[in-house]
Every structure is written in structure tokens, then in C-alpha cells.
């Protein structure tokens, strides 16, 4: 909370001085969003619960559902505290009603089980911080600050902040513990196929959307950790890492030369405030 002209201003969970705002305003983060979906899909229960309950696998509903997800992340990042709480409560209510079934054991499980929520959160944050580092958006110290700030976002979906990784080291330790539980299920293969050849019906989105999503998903696959690429049957070579990093740097430089993309009012305001904050500190560079 800051004060301008004597009136309190609610910048939500983060604000213009945060690393989170700066990272999430970068267009190259679309690659991170796709990387998160690919990484999250490697948890069998999470993927099956999503497949059994989500409209993302229905071609007639996929694009509106995707848009709602993007809107939630935008509200969580740039909305006021009241807006964040309303959006978070809506998501928590929705998840609390849903159940999944493990076809191998027949066991039913809640979609909002803490293990699943933590996996989804960590897949998202690891993807954002990894792409931000490799694209040259943040320093090592800023990357750790981003992960620490993300604990606030985890609370919005109902996680206990005490169990949420608050540094890149803690994130790495978390993934090392989780790797034995991960694998590519049939549902994950369907999900990846849908990203590479998105089922966007005519009239639901601009004509270029299918090609853009497919290209972004292909780039995201290359940015996955080596062990995750191997699970998907892709090369886990260091050369792939180098090529992916070079691609991210190039994409970021290219987007820096373009006009700011269309955005909701709260994102445009956040962009303005971050520019002002950076200018006040004498920092150059696009946001």
C-alpha cells in the first residue's frame, strides 16, 4: 500500500516496485505460461483430475476457458487486494467441488488436495523464473526475490505459505523430491498434442491464434528441464538448453522493439507505474 496525493492506493499483492510486476509485463512470458502447462502435466493425478474436469479438452470450450485462466492470473498479479480475494475465493470454491479418479487404483481424490495445488504452483513459478532468467529479464538475486514474492500468490489458491518454496534452491529441492512420482500419462499426451495443434474452433479466436499457440508451445518444450524433456521423449542435451536460452533472449529483444501489446486497463496502469518506478531509479530498458 502506498500513498499518492494523500489518498491510499491499493496495488494488490505486489506493486510497481516488485519483481513480479516487471516479469509478468514481459510478452516473452507467454512461453513461460506454456512451459508451466507442460511441466504441470507430468503429475499423473493432477493431469487426470484436470482431464476429467476441465473444459480445456473440449474444442468448443477450450479458448474461453483459457481466456478465463489468463484473466485470473492477471487479476492475481495486478488487481487490488479486494479483487484478488474475490477471484481467489471463486477459484477455491470451484476446485473444492471437483473430484478426480485414478483409473489404476479407482481411488477418488479432491482436485484441491494440497499436494496437487503445490505442484501446479511450483510448475508455474519455476517456469516464469526460469524463462525470466534465461531471457535476461532478472538477475540471480531478483530471481530469488520473484520466487519469494510468489508465496503470496500461493496463499490465494489456499496453500499454507510454510510449505511453499521461497527461493530457487527450495524450488530445485522440491522438484528433486517430486521427480520419482512423475510420468507422462495418456492424458498428458493428449494435452501436449492439443497445445502443439490447438483445438480452437473458427470464430472463437483470431485466425492467427492457432499458429501462435503452436509456435509458443514448441518453444516452451525446448525450455523444459532436461529430465522433463526426456520424459516427453525429447532430447535432453545441453545444446538444447543453449539454443532455447538464445531463442528467449532473441524473443525478448524483438518484443522490446514492438509497441506495447493490447492489455486490460489494470495491466496498462501497471505498465505505466513500473516505467515510472524504473525511471525514478534511473533504470533503462523496456518493460
UniProtKB/TrEMBL annotation:
GO terms for molecular function: oxidoreductase activity. This is ER-bound oxygenase mpaB/mpaB'/Rubber oxygenase catalytic domain-containing protein. Residues 21-249 form the ER-bound oxygenase mpaB/mpaB'/Rubber oxygenase catalytic domain. Pfam families: MPAB_Lcp_cat. InterPro entries: MPAB/Lcp_cat_dom. Transmembrane segments: none annotated. It comes from the Bacteria.
Amino acid at each position: 500500500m502506498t500513498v499518492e496525493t494523500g489518498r491510499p492506493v491499493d496495488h494488490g499483492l505486489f506493486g510497481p516496485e516488485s519483481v513480479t510486476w516487471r516479469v509478468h509485463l514481459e510478452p516473452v512470458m507467454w512461453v513461460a505460461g506454456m512451459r508451466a502447462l507442460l511441466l504441470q502435466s507430468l503429475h499423473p493425478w493432477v493431469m487426470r483430475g484436470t482431464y476429467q474436469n476441465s473444459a480445456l479438452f473440449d474444442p468448443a470450450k477450450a479458448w474461453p476457458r483459457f481466456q478465463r485462466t489468463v484473466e485470473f492470473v492477471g487479476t492475481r498479479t495486478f488487481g487490488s487486494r479486494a479483487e484478488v480475494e474475490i477471484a481467489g475465493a471463486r477459484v477455491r470454491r470451484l476446485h473444492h467441488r471437483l473430484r478426480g479418479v485414478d483409473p489404476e487404483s479407482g481411488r477418488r481424490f479432491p482436485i484441491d488436495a494440497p499436494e496437487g495445488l503445490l505442484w501446479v504452483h511450483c510448475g508455474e513459478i519455476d517456469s516464469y523464473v526460469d524463462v525470466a532468467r534465461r531471457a535476461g529479464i532478472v538477475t540471480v538475486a531478483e530471481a530469488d526475490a520473484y520466487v519469494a514474492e510468489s508465496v503470496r500468490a500461493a496463499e490465494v489458491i489456499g496453500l499454507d505459505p510454510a510449505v511453499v518454496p521461497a527461493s530457487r534452491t527450495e524450488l530445485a529441492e522440491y522438484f528433486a523430491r517430486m521427480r520419482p512420482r512423475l510420468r507422462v500419462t495418456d492424458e498428458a499426451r493428449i494435452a501436449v498434442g492439443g497445445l502443439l495443434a490447438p483445438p480452437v474452433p473458427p470464430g472463437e479466436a483470431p485466425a492467427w491464434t492457432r499458429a501462435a499457440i503452436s509456435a509458443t508451445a514448441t518453444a516452451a518444450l525446448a525450455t523444459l528441464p532436461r529430465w522433463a524433456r526426456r520424459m516427453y521423449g525429447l532430447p535432453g542435451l545441453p545444446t538444447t538448453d543453449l539454443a532455447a536460452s538464445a531463442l528467449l533472449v532473441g524473443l525478448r529483444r524483438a518484443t522490446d522493439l514492438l509497441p506495447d501489446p493490447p492489455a486490460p486497463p489494470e495491466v496498462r496502469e501497471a505498465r505505466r507505474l513500473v516505467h515510472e518506478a524504473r525511471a525514478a531509479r534511473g533504470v533503462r530498458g523496456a518493460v
